[in-house]
Specification:
The protein is mostly loops. The protein is built from two helices and two strands. The chain starts with 14 loop residues before the first helix and ends in a 33-residue tail after the last strand.
């Protein structure tokens, strides 16, 4: 029986592994990334480095935003976001909003 990422247990979802197996293609490197704010050493590079020990840390008033802009139209099927409430509940977002469309 086939399952989709949406029906797999969280511990079974690994975008890097799925990319290596040819199940998906990571296209974030084709985009320009910007942040509403960040503390030094906690910016876009840390957000995107696939290391769970590094992360983006905002440094300013809310809302905290991650903007991802592609140079040309791009069809995106899935968006993977890793948030770890157990590691740091005070900084884990209570709400995540994904907005798409033309600027």
């Amino acid at each position: 029986m086939a399952t989709t990422a949406a029906t797999r247990p969280v511990e079974d979802i690994d975008p890097s592994k799925d990319e290596k197996m040819g199940k998906l293609r990571e296209v974030g490197s084709l985009a320009v990334w910007s942040l509403s704010s960040c503390k030094p050493g906690f910016g876009v590079d840390q957000l995107r480095d696939d290391n769970l020990d590094t992360y983006w840390q905002s440094d300013g008033p809310q809302p905290h935003l991650v903007n991802i802009q592609f140079r040309r139209k791009m069809t995106i099927q899935d968006v993977a976001i890793y948030a770890d409430y157990k590691s740091d509940e005070s900084y884990t977002p209570s709400r995540i909003s994904v907005r798409v469309g033309d600027i």
